Amino acid sequence: MRAFWPFRHLGLKLLSIAIAVMMWMAIGGEETVERGLRVPLELQQFPPGLELVGDVPTTADVRIRGAIGTVGRVAPGDILAVLDLTGARPGERLFHLTPENIRVPFGVEVVYVAPPTVAVVFENTASRVVSIKPAIEGQPAPGFVVGRVSADPSSVEVVGPESAVRRASEALTEPVSVEGSRDRVHETVTVGTLDPSLRLMTPRTATVTVEIVPAPFEQTVPDRPVHLRNLSPNLTATALPSVVDVTLRGDKEALSRMEPDDATAFVDLAGLGAGEYMLTVRAESSRNAGVTRIEPASIQVRINSATN
After folding, report:
1. What is the pLDDT of residues 210-238, one digit of tens each?
2. 248 pairs with which residues across the strands?
3. Which of 214, 231, 252 is the last residue of a domain?
4. 80-84, strands of its sheet edge to edge
5. Are 183 and 212 spatial neighbours (Cβ–Cβ below 8 Å)?
6. CATH number of the CATH domain containing 247
7. Is there a domain that residue 121 lies in?
8. Are residues 244 and 227 in the same domain?
9. What is the DSSP annotation of 114-177?
């Protein structure tokens, strides 16, 4: 058995004691200060089968005390306010927030917490199957309208507080654009809810199909003058007949606002020289309506040299 020598390595032992004394004197001699911080508020031990209703504070204001060096090194993320929800039940409940609920680094003391009491409203968790309503944006091509709209799947289960679930009637999709479409639109999009207190039982997508069909209403704009476009310089032209009837298709509201000048008929003379031509008449509409028919569909155009 080795003998114990109390004076073995005496120099190292004395040095250690001296360092410890100096550290104690340095720390003990530091000025004590207080500092206010806003720190995160964390909810722990959340009871199963319950949902939060309304807004709950996400931060707490605390005042800490300690040595100036220690307090100066503390960042807001180093301190955490913890609210223990153990034993919560449906209804409005009050929870005390005390210095004991604040987690701080070693050497730091909590002297003040606000709010001292946090009100939290709980409801039982409920679920319900609701239909999926596709969201549509944009307008189809002139003369076409949105027909049948469907989603696959057609329904989804939402979960949340009882009161919010009772109000829920549908889930929505991301908008599906039909801008300028003439044919069926088929797109897979995300499904969600507008109520932030609700969530889907299982996050998912839906395939939305939008039928684009010809508009059901037609209107004829008679005696529209035929414009001669892109006639080369030093040429003149005449059309026979000089007017046509333009038939438009669109929704009832768009056609009811239609003015004669909203329909323009024209023939394109680009690249044509002197002579007689049988040309197809084209038309365009400034309203949300499509051209379905032009009578007559072709006209005779005579192009002459301006020097003749």
Report:
1. 999 888 888 899 999 999 999 998 899 99
2. 219, 291
3. 214
4. 102-103, 80-84, 32-44, 59-67, 109-114
5. yes
6. 2.170.120.30
7. no
8. yes
9. ESSEEEEEEEEEEEEEEEEE--EES--STTEEEEEEEEES-EEEEEEEHHHHHH--EEEE--EE
